[in-house]
Amino acid sequence: MDTSDATPTIHTDSSNPSEPVTNNDNSTLPPDDVAAIDQLGLVYQEFKNEIGKVIIGQEDVVERLAICLFSKGHALLMGVPGLAKTLLVSSVAETMDLSFNRIQFTPDLMPADITGTDIIQETDAGQREFQFIKGPVFANLVLADEINRAPAKTQSAMLEAMQENMVTVLGKTYKLDKPFFVLATQNPVEQEGTYPLPEAQLDRFMFLIDVDYPSHDEELRIARETTGSSKSSLSHILNGSQVQEYQDLVRRVPVPDHIYEYAVEIVRKTRPGTEAAPDWIGEYVGWGAGPRAVQYLILGAKARAALHGSYMARLEDIEAVTSPVLSHRVLTNFAAESQGMTAAKVVDRLVEEMRES
Questions:
Q1: In the 3-class helix/strand/coil scheme, how is 181-212 assigned residue by residue?
Q2: What's the whole-model pTM score?
Q3: Degrees (nearest 5) of the Cα angle 237, 242, 245?
Q4: Domains and CATH numbers, the chain
Q5: pLDDT digit string (tens) for 59-71?
Q6: Which residues fall within 8 angstroms of residue 108, CB to CB, at 6 or more apart?
Q7: CA 73 to CA 84: how far, in whole Å?
Q8: Is the CB of residue 76 less than 8 Å from the CB of residue 328?
Q9: 145, 79, 84, 75: which is closest to 324 by C-alpha?
Q10: Burial readout 331-345 (b: 16 or more C-beta within 10 A, e: otherwise)
Q11: What is the SS3 assignment for 117?
């Protein structure tokens, strides 16, 4: 595959190409995108340092969460209980000074328990009228804990909010707070009493993030540092308005043509029966990824580049986000399961073949 360097530039004012795009008067970003990306890189390092006060290890998970946040995406965390997923999410909210709500999904959870509902209230004039009481989805950062424990109707209420950034209750539409970021968790080992997310609903998550066990040294640190009486306090790094400014900045990161080509090519290779797909894909894959995967690959590459202080998306950036973007969008068949060929392994093999081509 041709990966020759392209030379896109940071956006400038079309009326005066030598002048960088400036932000509005209320912006806290530097006056040009290059300086703003430099600032975002420093903010990201500070963010990781703050999270590191309470979360030991899990550097890849923290990076992928940050990529999702600055891409305006949502994430599904897959991991067994006890890996500090809830603590991680609440720490992100605290560090970024965002409002945070946790929704514990259970089989008896109803859509109104998430979105809110109208209740009858008596006015000062003695009349009765309906008043909307907001549900826990009205927060900047929402943890949907064990989302697969609730029935499909309740899951759909949450996923509609994720897609539309609004909820509809009794015919009235209410906009959600911005920024809005949903982090859902799912237990990969417990299946009894669960309602697995259909592929169409999984597609609304930008990333599937695997939260693995800590290493020996990390687990030793956990034992030593988290069983005492002291508790680390986290500093606020960003507020909601600043997060939105950085989200807009990420959208302006230039992307070379060969990165667009890479995103389209690897997604098309996941679709069995198509001209682009290798022969072995038809052996292991039932359904491939859709166009939304291409969008998230590009956005993820932009966000990762900006977080690492790069002024344009690079091949290493898109390779780094390929697995979390595609692994829950590639549906393997029975032959793959019988041979231990998971969706993640399919994606890794495609990435390796792209490198060699």
A1: EEEEEECCCCCCCCCCCCHHHHCCCCEEEECC
A2: 0.85
A3: 145
A4: 28-106+136-252 (3.40.50.300), 253-357 (1.10.8.80)
A5: 899 999 999 999 9
A6: none
A7: 21
A8: yes
A9: 75
A10: bbeeebeeeebebbb
A11: strand
pLDDT of residue 26: 64
**Continuous H helices in the chain:** 33-51, 59-70, 85-95, 111-115, 152-164, 199-202, 216-225, 240-251, 257-269, 279-284, 291-307, 315-326, 334-338, 343-356
Please state the length of the chain: 357
Name the helix (H) or strand (E) containing 104: strand 100-104
- CB of 92 closer than 8 Å to CB of 69: yes
> Residue 274 region, left (φ>0) first, then alpha (ψ -120 to 50), else beta?
beta
Which tokens go with 100? 């945070």
Helix (H, G, I), strand (E, B) or coil at 18: coil
CA 8 to chain CA centroid, nearest Å:
26
| C-beta pairs of 224-232 under 8 Å, 24+ apart in sequence | 225/56, 226/56, 232/53, 232/54
Query: Looking at residues 279-290, what average pLDDT do you find?
Result: 91
pLDDT in tens, 76-103: 998 877 777 888 888 888 888 888 899 9
pLDDT higher at 25 or 56: 56
Q: How far is CA 301 from CA 173, 178, 249, in A?
A: 33, 23, 13
Q: What are the backbone angles phi and psi of residue 77, rounded to the nearest 5°?
A: -95, 125
Return the residue matching tokens 């995406």.
73
Sign (positive/negative) of CA torsion 265, 249, 5, 304?
negative
Both tokens of 28, joined, read 């806290």
